Amino acid sequence: MRFVLPQRQARRFDVYGELYDCIVLCAMHAHSERRPMKVEQLKDNGEEVRLRVSASAAEMTKAFTDGLDAFVVQYQMDQLEGETSLEKINNALGEEDGKVAVYNAVINYLVPFALEKQGTMPVSTYGIESEETPEPDKMFSFDMTVLVKPEFELSSYKPVKVEIEPKPEVNEADIDEQMGMLVRQFAAAQQGVQPDDASLQVPEVTDEWVAENMKPMGLTTVAELRERFRATSEEELANRYEQAKMAAAMDEYAKRFEGEISAKMIEVMTQELYETFLAQLSQEGMTLDAFYAQQHLTEEEVRANLATQAKMQLLQGFILDAIFRHEALKLEPGDMIAAMRNIAPGREEEAFEAMQKSGRSTLLKEGASRMKAAGWIMANTEFIVAE
């Protein structure tokens, strides 16, 4: 039977480093000693490399344990019914979907180790095919295509100067609007109607109303509620302002980018974004046709928008890579922790263990490296506030 695994090996944690090098390198060393994986190069057209990966019986046993464990953690199935990860997957997805998930989990576990052995950093991997059925304690081979990650340079690495708008401030009208929305939502839930229903009776926001409805949040007065809205709004505005500053700086560095991002890279990244988009729609319970009808869009328009995003993501990633190399930045344990917090907030330890088990420490390093380079940009850019 021929298995063509549709799930591309997502290599995006969108920013990566040298985390706990001792732990990671020791784990990789132990892996190389125990599992003599073979990687054969079949084709190389200068941009894509076709590889044949042969995993030993011992590696396959590990793939069916650590690989499935990582899958269970990634999709938060660890609290579901079942003694083993395989049982949890099958109980959650059913036999047929569970079988597909196991195939993908096993392959996704093997791919990073194959890339490490080959010494290749990918933009993406895809076209994964096998004539065999993966089983524990049995050798297994599959072919895959690697879109190799290139290195680009900038024409200048001198820090940039950027003019930005003044930082926005929270005003009382903003707080009034948020409080009005909150009380309408509470009243609608209590009265069993929609917030915009004409029959909705909206109460006045008084200390008594706040004490009755907001006490679980530790709020008992209108003043406290307003202050909470002010604090959260100021935090959100501050975050948006920092993002706007970073975007403005990146626009300047983009003018210095030397080289060309290939059509193949944009095509592959666009497809990854499209698959992520489909997964998000599925999680929200919305069909693709319903989304197109709601937004008055066609598939061609959606893909065109995603292609623009893909090119921008690739460009920004390559710029950050170039700065990290040129400035000889070094990663510290704190950088890796920050990257883990960005990937899996509140579940850093579990996610790190899963990434380490599944050979994805290289991806984590790339994410931490790009975050480090972004921090360097913010620290060295001269931001001039427009009058």
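Next protein, fold it too.
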Amino acid sequence: MACPGLFRRDPEIWQISQIYECSKNRERIGRLPRIASADLLLHPVRLRIVKAFLGDRALTTSQLASELDDVPSGSLYRHVALLTKAGVLQVVAERRVRGAVERTYTLRLFAARIDPDEVKAMSAEEHGQAFMAYVAGMLADADRYLASDPPDPIRDGADYQVGALWLTDAEFAELLRDLANVFRPRLAKPPGEGRRRRMVYTVFLPAAAEAAAEPSEPTKRPRTRRKSSS
């Protein structure tokens, strides 16, 4: 749900967004004004802003505005200011451009996640709205890719698949740990020459429980009497 890393899972199972922040940054989170992270992060525009910074990106508001060109600039700046005030975004550089201060921001992954208690407290309707925001973001990314000239999914490694697995809870936890081991070293790779930013979406949905079939009783064959020989 939402973008990768927004919902915390049991650390013994999997967190797709690994956190590489020092303890003083974690302490700073506790001193920031309390804003319900679900309300903060699941707003459609703020969710798109958070997604734009995924992958260890540093962006100015001008660069962000060019990527989210359908969002009015005044609205975009307000949402950036709110995310910065909440500690989700942080200013890493400032410079003067034509008399105005241009700030460069990065995402603080530790602050851009929703606590399990908040997830449990969300209603089914709220989960549905969050999932719709998640899917809308994915569709927007797909539209931007397909608008490239020309899109070539085979060359670019664009792929979308669906499958089903029969797993116990323990086997599912093992799968998540295996995926964590695959993703962890790759999430640590910074932007660099020859590297292309690739969006990864994950959705795990348990299917509706199937009613257990009642065991069928063995068919009884009628007993035949042997004819006595006369």
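About the second fold: The chain has a mean pLDDT of 80.
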